[in-house]
Design goal:
single chain, mainly beta, Methylamine Dehydrogenase, Chain H, four-stranded mixed beta sheet, four-stranded antiparallel beta sheet, 18 strands, about 45% strand, globular
């Protein structure tokens, strides 16, 4: 039986105390469901913190806690691919381990894990059959894995497409018609692209050959400049 996870909310701080004191909310112990929520609890500086994910039954108003939730990466939300949920580490340096979960009987069940190269910063994953393609922002590569076995197969080198340095900073991914579209952040030091170059770059990879075809550049929408993932998904 095919089931779909409904993604409800990402990236909101869990305020347990205020929720418990509200007369309009009720305490709920999650019993599973088909709605995935992720809560983040930032540290005072907002750069670090804790994050959790869990399944709930519906989106009715209620107060939830993290007692039955699964710890996940603070720097990037879980990635949903069909019935699978991938916990990537993003820009965090706390761990190089990514995990895979499956939606079974209204619960998330861990199915495997693997270690990515140090400082590789896995940002997104797209799957096609048994293969998974992971954008490694830190090394400028696409890591090809067998997501059923959670083992590495090969890497697709994107460093020739870097602007200003040897790393185009791949981020978001979409697969369409045997093509993998890769949003390139093109960071030149710091955290944002070069303001002197108001452009968005998307690389197209032929998945049959698993080789880059070309990079397309969009310059007519400067508001997308610092957010190539927005351009790709819209």
């Amino acid at each position: 039986m095919n089931q779909t996870i409904k993604l409800f909310a990402f990236g909101f701080a869990l305020c347990a105390a205020s929720a418990c004191e509200s007369d309009n909310n009720k305490e709920v112990t999650p019993q599973g469901g088909d709605v995935l929520i992720c809560t983040t609890i930032p540290s005072p500086d907002g750069m670090t913190g804790s994050a959790y994910m869990q399944m709930i039954g519906n989106v009715d108003e209620a107060a939830y806690d993290n007692r039955n939730a699964i710890p996940t990466s603070y720097s990037i939300p879980p990635i949903v691919e069909g019935k699978y949920v991938f916990d990537l580490t993003g820009a965090s340096s706390e761990s190089n381990t990514i995990k895979k979960y499956a939606f079974e009987n209204e619960l998330l069940v861990e199915k495997g894990s693997m270690v990515t190269p140090e400082n590789s910063m896995p940002m997104d994953i797209a799957i096609r059959g048994s293969k998974g393609y992971i954008a490694l922002r830190g090394t400028g590569q696409i890591l090809v894995i067998d997501h059923e076995k959670m083992t590495s197969l090969k890497s697709i080198d994107l460093t020739n497409y870097g602007i200003g340095d040897q790393n185009p900073d791949p981020t978001s991914l979409i697969i369409r018609d045997n093509l993998l579209f890769v949003a390139l952040l093109q960071i030149e030091g710091g955290y944002i692209p070069n303001p002197a170059r108001p452009a968005v770059d998307v690389l197209i990879i032929d998945l049959d050959k698993e080789e880059p075809l070309k990079m397309i550049t969009e310059t007519s929408s400067p508001n997308f400049h610092s957010s190539p993932s927005y351009f790709l998904h819209h």
